[in-house]
Structures are given as structure tokens and as C-alpha cells.
């Protein structure tokens, strides 16, 4: 095994523990590959979390279903009081009493209140007064949820599909490289990247997982205007100096990437994560430019070309 | 008394003052055990603070009571103007004039406005116009409060029930340990922990309270994916090196824990606090694993097992 | 003049410029004593700023006036179309056509829409459709403003009325001290304080203003549970070592205080400012305790006693 | 070429890449001069971004158009169901069935619901119930958008129109200077400035772009109360020590400015950017004061005079 043991610092664990793994901890899309048992399902915060992070179609469906369920609930109440306590249903051209109650409930919950159906009698009036208050509060919650969904800080980076082992001009040797760019319209400032190398190692006959933070050519930029090629130089100091593709496969080598940036549009710190596994590393390749200048001198960055690379000869390792 | 005096730095006070205490300053649930007198009850910020931090049942009750109180108030006004200025009450099947005024008020405040009861005359129309504006603003406030309640940054950690004096493999000696995990669905980054040891000491016949920040094996992790066992190694440098359970009890030893993390879902810094007292320390025990791998290799973390420990022999102190 | 010139670092200017002043730059309540000319009055941000920071009575009055003005505007339009295009005004017991139009407008703007008055004809219907949209948006704005006002991060500290020149036990000499405590219900973490001493100095016959950041016994605490007495020790290194009350008066000595903290309830960084002038310094006094323990051992902090001090003999300066 | 090559650090690239440019990367108003291709147009985040950052007239127009489009959509549905299913249209003095359906739709969407037109029959009632729910949600979205627009953190600085090569008293030599002040009503704390000098250089016959971060006399101030004159001293260490106007023009010299500050009113970090090109540099000039004291001693800062300068003789370069 070519991974240089002395270079590995036990303090470089990122909170992953030292269990041997058969799967990535951080998935390519940034989600975490750990299942937690015992999280209370109905806690307010977790419900809010789910409503904020679910996909839009699921969210709209949830809202629609909730609207119908609440109206069915109140319609049942009006029906049990007696449909005669809703005046005007005779002129509504709806013969089904439940539907009449349902439509009156909808008009009350949404506070549209046409009034062609109206409550009569003490009990129906109390229920309607209560329902309209519920409507107001439900509306308030929907407002909060929609704002929370829209305004949630999020970075969306496009990462290159592969990591490359490429010639690295600055040292005359090799470099481990990947590329990223901003998929959002906002301006990102103060980007910082942390890359961790993790691998299985056999210690005393037991396989454990080791972690090592890889030093980068540059780990910060002040403003991200184009794409950024992140480079870990494969110098003699690197634990990956003379690693081979077979070493990577045998040790289940994984590279975890944590990206942090400041979103200038909304003044929020945003984070992103991804990971590359041994089978996503290309040996002997270099990235091709993803931008060009037009006639006016304006720079165009083509986000679809972030992953493009071409073959390149690697310098020998002494 | 075995607490090593020279190790205690007067600068390690965390803003608690140096009064001898008979109670914890930080409770187990993180609240602060100091009563402040003279805080203005009706200041806007404190009212907002109370409405945001009160429990949900209390909040809903407050909203309901406020709704009824405001409607009673406006109903009284309509009644004093004369119920004859509300048209349509004859068809409402409600004989009590006050209830008729109340229901009309509710329909106005919630802007449902069926119109089967409607204001007539200049004064009733003015009051109704004003009440509907109040309704709009009350609705606006409810929206803000609900959003504020839902979106309030909060970390919810599960801390182990006990702190352990456990064997600590890295030094071959002992360690003071507790364990924590994330109870929320969100991903926590950049966790940092600060542990303070406080105890009573008799100086010149007067009992004062001393504070000491304990160095940790590791005080930061980049990402919390599993549980985290926080360790203060009981080396010779530690003020707790040769402390006994009796020392702890006599000095009312307390360990205050401050946790800080970055919530990746909502891009907010979150804090949590807890404390352990001398009677929550277990001597000679070690934590048992709280996670396991399923057949597919996926890691499962069982939050209900965070507090589980088993007996363990402690190495002797030289 | 006893202020030690060599101790003053020209780099300690806090962005105040070096003009001699006849007034404080930072007022006691934290506002800035500079008038800026040329700020655009009607910019969106400045309007929002004003609506968020104005006092509550002024805010409610603004909302009420806006509501009336918009309704008067739309009432005029309905009137110019012709009151006959509003059906139902005959039964409203209001003889004044303008008032009828006004009340209809209010019912439309607030979306209460009883319907006892309703638009008739194409133009009145268009205007009503437009007005109800305006009503929705105005409501939306009010919601945002109210939430912005409620949730605005703010620290409210009570600062002692005076700064004291007090005996300082730790050095056996004197200290310049003031005291502060938290007036809010929230918990404050990571407090940091910066104290700047500014004074007039005559250089080449011209009076200029000098600034000096004073080192503090402690400039940070992790958590503020009680009151905090901030101390600048008057050691030989201090530019104030042998200053006299006359020196302070003659040089218009001012002490500017910047406080920063983290509000744990709302996860926001909050700031506060204040200043003390030469005539608010008390020579030869010390603060009396502002807290006590009740029988149960619970600590009570009395915010009204933060300013309380008693006479104390000052040690001589060698 | 007088730009001192040895002073240029390849690590000072700010994420701009090293392409020779014919245009600024950062425009005077702070926007970025790079066109990105391949950003998904209809992503939620980018739509939100556009709605938040578009100008106010465009925003109001978008809202108005959306309101009309949705009402036209629902009016068509009511019409296709049959105008006879909307009761009360006969008394509405509107003969066009589409307009009647449109006005009913508007009354439903805005939840004003007068009720002089009301739905009749099962289908019309279902559509109305659904439309009022859509109205509630649309209202909720408008609320979120308006709040997002109002509360978006933003710094608005006025930068001097020109950078000056001015005499610099502190070194007795020259300085490169510009001036800025705060155009907002809020108080700015902890300002930090970063100035980057970029220029074209011919290396091996190929023109590349170099970047160099210029050290400043002062790069931070604690509080911005007046204007701030930012100075890069043209000492021998500066890469600009003996640069000439011709050098600047030939190398397309550009100065990029990044400003960061903490907005005390809304507790948010705000950023601003600008740039100066070679043709915006004035040689041999100095800024004239932009503030004055009135009789009461109050300082007045005149934002309109931030750019004002007068001729000044430059000291010779040895």
C-alpha cells in the first residue's frame, strides 16, 4: 500500500468516526449517507424542516391536501349542526348538502365570504367565526413556509464529473484536480474549500477508516467570477505521492469536498458538499477551457463544459 | 482538596461572577439559573421574545384569547351604537344582540365579510372600516410571529445522561467524557465545544466560586455525521488529575458545556448548552457504540443509545 | 497636560477623523452625532429604514394615515365615476355620497367585501378589482414591515450612569470602570467590548482630536449571566495613568464604548454603543453589588442597581 | 514597463483567471462583466433571484400582469362552465359575459368576495374554492417577495469619481487615493477594504493578466461616521512606485475594490464593489474636505462633495 502512513494525522477525522466503510459518507449530491434512528417525527422543527426542504410538487400537493382535509372537517361540523343553519344553499344550484357545507367552509377558510351562503344560528356562527380565524392562521403559516422556501440560502455549484490526475505546471509534477463553477445568478465571495482524503487501512488485522485533510494549491478566493480549478499538488509531502489506481481501489479511496462561500445577493453564508470515489478519478488528463472571449472582449463561461477534459501525459515520479 | 490550585486561571471566569453557589448557573436543559429584576415587562422586544419562545399550546391559546377579546371589544362598540345599525341580524337566527354584534365583528376582523350582516349608518361604517384594518394588521402580526417561531434557529442535541470517568486509550490514562448527537434533520457543520469546570473553594475563610476551561482532546469537528464523544484527558496538567468523587461533591463541582454549530439547512449559527453536576458523573465506565452497519453497509445511528455505557476498569493514577 | 503622548497611536482612529470636536460623536444612547447631507430621501432602502426604526406610535399613525389616504383616493375615483355605480348605498343609511364611496373603498381595500355595497358597471368593477389587488399588496407590505420591526436584532444594555475611577484590587492601583447588564430576556453569548479614549490636543497651535484604544482587564466573556464590570487598569502603560479631572475637562475627554454580542435566542450578532464624557466620571468610588442570593440559593440580579456606587479611597499614584 | 515584476505574487489572483482582458471584470457599479452560459432559466432560486433584484417598476408591472393573467385564466374557465353558473351578473350593469367572469374571478382571487356575483352549481363552486386558495397562496408569495425585496441587505456607498495620485504627508511621498462614504441611513461598523491592481503583461510573447493586492495605509475602521480616504502609499515596495500614466494605459491598469461592512441596523454583513480604470486616475491632485462644522459644533458631511479635488504638486520620485 503506497499511502504514506506517517503523513496521516489522527486529528484529521472530520467527525466521521473511524469505522471501515463500504459506502460513501457524503454522496455526490452532498447528502449524508447515515441513517439516524430515534429522531422524533412530529417535532415542530423537523416538520418545518421537511416542509421547507421537500420538492415543490410535493409541497403544493401537501398544501392542496391540507386545504381539502380542513374543509372536509369543517363541512362535517356544519352538516352535523344541520344544513338548515346555512342560509342560501337553496339558491346555490348544489343539491348535495355535504358539498354545500364544503363550499361554505372553503369560502370561510379563505375569507372570501361571498355571503350567498351564510351561517344562521348561534352554533353555526361560532363555528364560522372560529374557522375564519383558523383560515387566517393557516394563511399566515403558508406565507411563512413559502418565504422560508424561497429565501433559503443555497449554493448550487456544478462540479466536474471527474477528478483528474493531471500534469501540474507549477511544480513540474502531478496534481489532483477538480473544477467547479457557480450555477446561480448570485455573486459568490470568499470561497473556501476543504478536501479530505479517506481510505481503509488494516491495523492489527482490523480494517479502520483513516482521514487526511489534503493541502491545496489555493484554498480560498475572494470572488468567484469564472470557474475554479482546485489543485492538490502531488508532491513528496502528499500521502498520495506515489499512489496507484489499484491502491485507490483497494483502500476504497474517497475524496470529500466541503465548499463554503458568501452569497453577496442575500448576505448569507452558503455551503456545498460533494465527494469523488476512486472510480471517478481519471489518470493522465487535463481540463480544457470552459470559457471564451467574444469579439467585444466579453468573457463567456460555458457551464456545460466544466467537466470537459483531454488526455495529457503525466510526468514520471522519481 | 485535590483540585490543583495553580492550574486555575482567574481569567477563565465565563461571566458567571465568583459567588459561591448552591445551585447550577446553567441548567441541564440549557436555561440560565439567574433571576433578573427590573426588566420592563411591556417592552416590544420582550413581548416578542415571549411570544416566540412560549410553548405551542400556550401560543395558540394566546392567539385564541386575543381573537375573542378583540371581538368582544368591537361587539361592545357596535352594541353601544345600537344593534339597529347592523342590518340583517333579523335573519341570522340569533336572538342575543351581543352575539349578533360579536359574530359581525368576527366576520369583519377576519375580513371574511359574508355580508348577511352589514353595517348601516356613518358610525357603524367607520367602526367596521377601522376594525377591518385592525384585522389586516393582526393577521400580519400573526404571520410574522408564526414565521418567527418556525424559522427560529435552534439546535437540539441529545447529550448523554452522564459524564464518565473512563479509560482513555490515547494517553493510557483516564478521560472525562460525555457524548452528544444531533436530534434534528439538518446537517451541522463546524461544531465547536467549550467545557468549563467550576467549583467552590475556600479562600481566606470565604467560599468563592472558581472557573477553569478544560482543554479537550478535540474541540472542533468539520461535520457531525455520527455521535461525538467529547474527551477531557485527565493528564497531570489537568486540575482534575487526582480528584476523587468526594472532592467533587464537597466543592459542588459542575461542568458547563457550550456547543456552537453551523446549521447547513438554514445557514445559521446555532448554540446549545448543558451542564453536569458531581452526582451525574459515573466513575469507571465507558460508552457502548450507538451505531451499527446494516447488510448494505449503511451506517445507522441510534439516538436512543447515546447515554448507554458499561463498566470499565480505570487505570491507576501514579 | 498629563496625557502621555507617546502612548497615542495615530492608527487608533476609529473612523472619526481627527477634527477637534465640541460635541460627542457617539451619544449616550448610541446614536451618531454627524449630520449627513445629500442622502436621497425617497430611496427604497432609506424609506424601509425609516419605517423599521421609527417609534411604534409614529408607525401606527403612519399606517392609519396611509389607510385613510388610499381610501380617500379611491373614494374620489368611485365618486367621479358616479355614485350610482355603487349599488346598495341607498340601504346603507349614509346620505353623504363621498362617505358611501369611502366605506365601499375600505371594504374593498381590506378585502372584507360585505357586498351590501357592490360595484356595478365596467369601470367601477375594474377599479374595485384593481383596488383589491392594491389591498393585498399593502397587506403584504404591512406584514413585512411588522415582521421586520419585531424581529430586528437589537441589544438593550443598561450601562451604569457613571464611569468610576476606583481602587483596583488586582494591580493594587486604580482602574477606570463602568458596568453593564442585559435588559432583554434573551441570552447573550460571546460579548466583546472595545473602549476608545478620545481627547483634544494642541499640535503646532492647532487643536486636533486624538484617539486611543484602551486595553481592558478583560474584553470578552463567553456568556453574560450577571452584570459585567469592565475595567481599564490605570497602570503606568495607560495614557491616563496620572490624568487629573482638570486634564479631562480641558481636553474634552470622551470614552466611546462599542459592545458586540451574539443573541442566542435569534442567532444574530447584536451591537450597542455608548459614551461617557469627562463630566460623567466619578473620582474615588466603587460599584456596590447589584445581585443577591435568596434563601433557596437562587441568584437575583437587580437591573435598577447597576449604577449604584459608594465612595472609596483611591490609592496614591507614585 | 515600470511595473516591478518581482513584486507580483501569482497567488494574488482573486478568482479572475489570468486571461488578458479588453474590458473590466468588475464594473464601476459593482456588477460582474462575465456572461455565464448554461444557467437554468426556470430554476426556483434563479426566478426568486430575478424577482428580488429586478427594479421596482419592473416588479410592480410583473405583479400586475400576473394578476391579470391569472384572472383571465379563471375567467375563461368560468365562461366555459357557462356564465349562467355565476348568479347576480344581471344586476352588475356589465353586459360582456367575459368581463363579468373576470370581475368575479378578481373578487375571488383577492378574497374580497362581495357576493353580488356568486358561484352556483357544483363545478363553479369547486373552481371558486380552488381559486380562492390560489389567491391566498399568491398573496403569501407576494408577501414573501416584498419582504425579501425590502429587507435585502445592501450597502450603498458613494465612491469618488476618480482615484488620485496625491501627495501623501505620512511618507513624504505619493499615495494612490480614493474616497467613499455611506449613502444609507444605517450605521456601518467594521469596514474592511481590499484593493487589487490588475494589468496586462507580455510573458514569452503572450499577453496575460496579472493581479496584485495593494497594501493600504489602513484597511479596516471600526465605525464609519464620516468619509474615508483609502490610501495605498506609493513607497519603493509598491509595484506602482515609478509607474507613469502611459504604463497604466498600455497595461490596461485596473483597480478593483471590494468593501465589506457590518450593517448595525439590520445586523447583516454587506458588501460593495467598484473599480477604477487607468483613465479614471488623476495625477497631481488632492481631495478637498467634504464636511464642515456648524456654529453649534455639529459635524455636517456633504455626500455630494465626496468626489471634489484640487490640483496639488507631487513630490519627485528619487
Automatic annotation (TrEMBL), chains A, B, C, D:
Keywords per UniProt: Ion channel, Ion transport, Membrane, Potassium, Potassium transport, Transmembrane, Transmembrane helix, Transport, Voltage-gated channel
GO biological process entries: potassium ion import across plasma membrane; regulation of monoatomic ion transmembrane transport
Domain Potassium channel as annotated: residue spans: 69-146
Pfam families to which the protein is assigned, alphabetical: Ion_trans_2, IRK_C
Membrane spanning residue stretches: 58-86, 123-147
Transmembrane recorded as keyword: yes
InterPro entries (alphabetical): Ig_E-set (IPR014756), IRK_C (IPR041647), K_chnl_dom (IPR013099), K_chnl_inward-rec_Kir (IPR016449), K_chnl_inward-rec_Kir_cyto (IPR013518)
A GO CC annotation given for this chain: plasma membrane
GO MF assignments: inward rectifier potassium channel activity
Membrane topology summary: Multi-pass membrane protein
Keyword match Membrane: yes
Chief localisation class: membrane
Location relative to the cell: Membrane
Residue ranges occupied by any Inward rectifier potassium channel C-terminal domain in the UniProt entry: 159-315
Protein name: Ion transporter
Source organism of the structure: Mucilaginibacter agri
Organism lineage string: Bacteria, Pseudomonadati, Bacteroidota, Sphingobacteriia, Sphingobacteriales
Amino acid at each position: 500500500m503506497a499511502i504514506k502512513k506517517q503523513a496521516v494525522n489522527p486529528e484529521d477525522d472530520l467527525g466521521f468516526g473511524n469505522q471501515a466503510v463500504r459506502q460513501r459518507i457524503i454522496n455526490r449530491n452532498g447528502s449524508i449517507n447515515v441513517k439516524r434512528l430515534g429522531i422524533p417525527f412530529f417535532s415542530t422543527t423537523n416538520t418545518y424542516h421537511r416542509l421547507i426542504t421537500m420538492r415543490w410538487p410535493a409541497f403544493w400537493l401537501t398544501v392542496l391536501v391540507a386545504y381539502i382535509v380542513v374543509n372536509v372537517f369543517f363541512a362535517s361540523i356544519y352538516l352535523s349542526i344541520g344544513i338548515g343553519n346555512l342560509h342560501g344553499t337553496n339558491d346555490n344550484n348544489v343539491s348535495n348538502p355535504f358539498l354545500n357545507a364544503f363550499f361554505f367552509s372553503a369560502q370561510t377558510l379563505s375569507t372570501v365570504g361571498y355571503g350567498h351562503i351564510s351561517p344562521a344560528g348561534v352554533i353555526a356562527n361560532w363555528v364560522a367565526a372560529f374557522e375564519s380565524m383558523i383560515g387566517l392562521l393557516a394563511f399566515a403559516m403558508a406565507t411563512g413556509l413559502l418565504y422560508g422556501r424561497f429565501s433559503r440560502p443555497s449554493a448550487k455549484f456544478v462540479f466536474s464529473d471527474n477528478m483528474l490526475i493531471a500534469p501540474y505546471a507549477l511544480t513540474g509534477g502531478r496534481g489532483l484536480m477538480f473544477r467547479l463553477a457557480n450555477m446561480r445568478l448570485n455573486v459568490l465571495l470568499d470561497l473556501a474549500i476543504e478536501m479530505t482524503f479517506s481510505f481503509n487501512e488494516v491495523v492489527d488485522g482490523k480494517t479502520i477508516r483513516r482521514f487526511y485533510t489534503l493541502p491545496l494549491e489555493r484554498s480560498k478566493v475572494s470572488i468567484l467570477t469564472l470557474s475554479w480549478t482546485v489543485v492538490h499538488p502531488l508532491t513528496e509531502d502528499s500521502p498520495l505521492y506515489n499512489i496507484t489506481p489499484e491502491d485507490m481501489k483497494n483502500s476504497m479511496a474517497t475524496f470529500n469536498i466541503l465548499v463554503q462561500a458568501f452569497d453577496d445577493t442575500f448576505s448569507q453564508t452558503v455551503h456545498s458538499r460533494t465527494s469523488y470515489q476512486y472510480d471517478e478519478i481519471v489518470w493522465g488528463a487535463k481540463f480544457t477551457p470552459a470559457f471564451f472571449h467574444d469579439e467585444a472582449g466579453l468573457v463567456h463561461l460555458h457551464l456545460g463544459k466544466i467537466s470537459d477534459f483531454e488526455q495529457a501525459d503525466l510526468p514520471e515520479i522519481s
